Every structure is written in structure tokens, then in C-alpha cells.
Amino acid sequence: MRLPALRRAHAALVCALLYGAALGAATPAAAAGPLSPAAVEDLRAARAGDMGKLAIHTEPKEVPQVAFLAEDGSERRLGDWRGKLTVVNLWATWCGPCRHEMPSLDALKADLADEGIDVIAVNVERKGLVKARRFYTQEGIETLEVLVDRDKALPTRLGVIGYPVTLILDPEGREIARMQGDADWHSPEALAILRRFSAAVSETDQMN
After folding, report:
1. Which pLDDT does position 11 carry in this prediction?
2. Which of 43, 123, 140, 186 meets the CB 3.0–4.6 Å disulfide criterion with 132?
3. How far apart are CA 194 and CA 166, in angstroms?
4. Which parts of the chain sit beneath pLDDT 70?
5. What is the per-residue pLDDT for 25?
6. CB atoms inside a 10 Å sphere around CB 56
7. Residue among 60, 79, 42 nearest 196 (CA)
8. What is the pLDDT of residue 26?
9. How far is CA 65 from the centre of its chain?
10. Are 75 and 67 in contact (CB under 8 A)?
């Protein structure tokens, strides 16, 4: 092979190697797997009080990435909270049990903010931006964001049949537990089970 041809072949090989390295660097790390069967059983056994109604899934479930609104009118999606264990509550101001549990969710968010656990509440009313803001002011809700799904796209895609409903999402943004109905989310039992979820998720991350 002539010298120019050798140089072209060498250059092509170098380019191929660099391209492959770039692809490898751009490939994201593998997502954390589901909780182990032992972890799921441990969490189920640890449920107490109102948390006895919490359904803990054997396998994580993907959630729809439909848009809803923040108070400033910007679009948000559940994927925006990836990276944290997240409690997602769907509620309405006309729903008595929803109104009753909202202060406990507000307190929960404040208490767990430094532990890598977040809490959001998504109102599902057409005029939710006004109604949720008014309700928060009346009830002294200070830490929860005003978030609204005016078209109810999120509950429809999630198969929600009544309110309130609360999901727990793992740091990958997948549903790992669900509760139908209201609860005291600031009770010792709620704090304990959420911290156990956080520990179980962290252990799963370390194993992957």
C-alpha cells in the first residue's frame, strides 16, 4: 500500500476510534432497576396507620409526560422531578378529603426537603390556578407549589378514578406506589415509610 493510502487508512481508524469513544461518553448510565422483592416485602410490612392503604408495586410503572402548568404559566411535567423520590398528589378544591390532607402534605414537603424527598400537589380544576392559589392563602399552605392540570390529562392517563390520589415516584420518575384516598401525610407512620422508600431506592442504586 502506498504511503498516502496508509495515511488515509490511519486517519480513518483514528476517526472511528474517536467517534466510538464519543458515543460511549454520551451514553447515559443504566437506569436504576426495580426494588428487590425483599425490599418490596419489607416496605409492605412496614405500613402502618393511614399508610396501610398504600399499594406498593412489585414493578415500577412508567408515568405519562403530559404537560401541566406552574403558577407562572410555564409548562411542567413529572419528569422534571427526576432525581428525587417524589410524592405526587392529585387534588381539587371541591374535594373535602383533598382539602383536609393538604396541610399535612405541605408540612411533609417542609420536613423532607433536606432528605432528597420532594412533594408536589397538582390541582385538576379548569380554574385551578385561581382556586388553588386562593385555597393556599386561606389555609396557610406555604411550601407547596401551585401546579394545575386544567385538562385533567394527567389523571386520565394515570387511570385515576377518584380524588385525592397520591403517587410515589422513584428517582427515575417511575411510579412505585399509589394511595387512593386521603391520609395524614405528616404522621410518624408516613414519615417513616417514605424514609424507608428513600433508603430502599438508594440501596438499589448502589447495587446497579
Report:
1. 43
2. 123
3. 13
4. 1-33, 204-208
5. 34
6. 21
7. 42
8. 33
9. 11
10. yes
